[in-house]
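Dear colleague,

Thank you for sharing your sequence with our group. We've completed the structure prediction you requested, and as agreed, I am returning the results in plain text so they can be pasted directly into your records. Please verify that the sequence below matches your submission; if there's any discrepancy, let me know and we will rerun it promptly.
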Amino acid sequence: MTAVGAEIGIFGGSGFYSFLADVETHDVDTPYGRPSGPVSVGTIGDRRVAFLPRHGPHHEFPPHRVNFRANVWAFRALGVGAVIGPCAAGSLQLHVKPGEIVVLDQLVDRTGGRVDTYFDGPGPVHVSFADPYDPELGRLAVEAARAEGIVVHERGTVVVISGPRFSTRAESRWFSGLGWEAVNMTQYPEAYLARELGMRYCGVALITDYDAGVDGTDGIEPVTQAEVFAVFEANIERLRGMLSRLVPLIPPTLCRPAEPAGPLPI
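Please find the predicted structure tokens below.
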């Protein structure tokens, strides 16, 4: 992998990179195909940041079609050691309200059919994923959110579904009853692939809606795609402000990538 000096990587929706200065664009080829788009590399303060819209520059890739392996590999190839993964999520608990942020600390994978490892053999590589999210990055994310005046939940479990459909009411009641806080379609395998390549990962979930089966929301109509996009757009400036505060807080010691979890097959 050839580094260009990026330290921190941010996945997100198109338009996030507008807060970067001195932007240069990199088309990164990977052994796993093309990433979702060119990677923008610029600065926030004195930190070098790589940005990639995980769904593509025009949101052309639905969650089940995102090339997560190529996206994560592209960051590592540019030198990234710490990844921030902002995402939209539905709330599974009444006290977690739309417009608030959950800094994630646990993940449940309910996807299916996604290619989710770099280690296809020969030989097994078993990687610990007991704690999917980096706690030091998480603490800094909470600090940045509070400084921006955002209501933030210091921890939370996200259940990741394949999409592109939303949950049924029965599925939502099941997830909610297990005490999980949020539901999303992209945190897995993105967070795990970062672990395999030796990068820290911080998941920041912007709550856009209540999921269909949450107790106490019986009078609320099931969410639509248009509503999710509208809430995300209404909160994007606050999220950008949080990220602009977060990046300078991350010390260089947290931005040094570790060795990959095993011998890479390519």
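Summary note from our side: The domain at 8-252 is CATH 3.40.50.1580 (Rossmann fold).

Kind regards,
the structure core
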